[in-house]
């Protein structure tokens, strides 16, 4: 017997236990949550397994496997956000510094962070081999980065953790500090930083524009 499963107000016809419905229900739980604590209900070993499995199985164009990740925990997470704060706050106007500092302190107060990168050396190599796609490989690399981030984020959410996606690594000065602090290859280009921890509060409600304006179905 088929039933209608509703995810974020969108009906899905099928059994509630249908695998795609279970997957989409998991995707629907992912939210930005800035209110995180220095605790984790998930073991470090499980966190490592999540990141490794996500990197291993998230798709990349031409199977280049260009995505990279660094799991930062404990005192190393504090070090990460201290160096981000020190560099970032230099460019923040005085009247905005208190707000910025509060947000950065919240990230530093989390249990850990996942650093995401794309390896430019891999992208350069495939570009040299297939130059017809020179302008497209950077786009596809960005696609791969987003997929990996979503997989990790959703997985952490399913484990009961709160997380958000930050882009401080886009600042060359901050990126350089991160590479130096964690001895990372210079070819690794930062795509995002994901601070996480047990949630101190539920995430804010998410609003949606009409799905009819965003999806078009064409069939005979």
From TrEMBL:
Transmembrane stretches, start-end: none
InterPro entries noted in UniProt: Frm2/Hbn1, Nitroreductase, Nitroreductase-like
GO cellular component, one term: nucleus
Pfam families: Nitroreductase
Nitroreductase domain sequence ranges: 28-197
GO BP, one annotated term: cellular response to oxidative stress
Gene3D superfamilies named in the record: NADH Oxidase (3.40.109.10)
Cellular location(s): Cytoplasm; Nucleus
Molecular function (Gene Ontology), one example: oxidoreductase activity
Keywords for the protein's UniProt record, in alphabetical order: Cytoplasm, Nucleus, Oxidoreductase
Nucleus keyword on record: yes
Keyword Oxidoreductase (UniProt): yes
Entries under SUPFAM superfamilies matching the protein: FMN-dependent nitroreductase-like
Domain of life assignment: Eukaryota
Family membership noted in the UniProt record: Belongs to the nitroreductase family.
Name assigned to this protein: Nitroreductase family protein
Species of provenance: Mycena albidolilacea
């Amino acid at each position: 017997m088929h039933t209608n499963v509703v995810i974020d107000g969108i009906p899905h016809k099928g059994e509630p236990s249908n695998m795609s419905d279970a997957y989409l229900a998991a995707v629907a739980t992912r939210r930005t949550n800035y209110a995180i604590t220095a605790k984790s209900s998930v073991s470090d070993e499980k966190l490592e397994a999540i990141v490794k499995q996500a990197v291993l199985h998230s798709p990349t164009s031409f199977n280049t496997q260009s995505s990279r990740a660094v799991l930062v925990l404990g005192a190393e997470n504090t070090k990460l956000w201290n160096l981000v704060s020190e560099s970032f706050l230099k460019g923040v106007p005085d009247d905005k510094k208190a707000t910025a500092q509060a947000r950065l302190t919240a990230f530093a107060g989390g249990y850990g962070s996942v650093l995401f990168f794309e390896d430019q050396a891999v992208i350069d190599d495939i570009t040299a081999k297939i130059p017809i796609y020179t302008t497209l490989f950077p786009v596809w690399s960005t696609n791969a980065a987003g997929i990996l981030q979503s997989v990790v984020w959703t997985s952490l959410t399913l484990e009961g953790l709160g997380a958000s996606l930050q882009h401080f690594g886009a600042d060359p000065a901050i990126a350089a500090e991160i590479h130096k602090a964690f001895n990372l290859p210079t070819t690794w280009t930062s795509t995002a930083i994901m601070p996480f921890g047990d949630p101190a509060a539920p995430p804010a409600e998410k609003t949606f524009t009409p799905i009819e304006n965003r999806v078009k179905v064409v069939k005979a």
